[in-house]
Design a protein that fits this description.
mainly alpha; 3-stranded mixed β-sheet; two-stranded antiparallel sheet; 5 strands; 51% helix; 9% strand; globular
Length: 212
Amino acid sequence: MSTHHPKLNLGKTELLFLPAKGSPMIDASITVEGSIVSLSQSARSLGVTLDNQLCFSSHIAAISRTCRFSLHNIRRIRPFLTQEATQLLVQALVISRLDYCNSLLAGLPACAIKPLQLVQNAAARLVFNQPKFTHVTPLLSSLHWLPIAAHIRFKSLVLAFQAARAAHSRSRLFSVLVLVGGTTSRNPVRTAESLPIFRKRLKTHLFRLHYH
């Protein structure tokens, strides 16, 4: 920064300490240009809230809150909307938020991402104008929406596929394809030679896995 002259905005600078598993937490601060930057429990970057345990509970809570607010507003005007118009609004205002950076949630337990699944369930019922306790699986299947956990897996595997192809590594690519599910060579996802084909086949594979 001294060499290239960019200016650090200390008002937006936060210190986040991510300890290794089993390591003690520390209470520390750093001084930059005479200003003290204190330790934070969480920090927000590009719309994602990172916490110092990487459990993403604050991030998930924020997404759920925002999505439920949008669903509430759409529900108020639902009597004046067609099913198609409702689906467009829900996908633009709710599903897009559920999908944003969701690969960061890979590896979290089902209980952690359950609030997001409940939001998706509510969104599906709203599209079809169904009551609160309607069985949601047929609705999600009809909308071609993967469950939250499956969509997180989809995004993670797509990113891994892109990284493996960029590295031109056959062994890495094979490892990614094995993670798709099963080692049988008859799995069409494993024979995908391009990203569009991989995405299409992977979604079909996960869709059948969860709905059939």
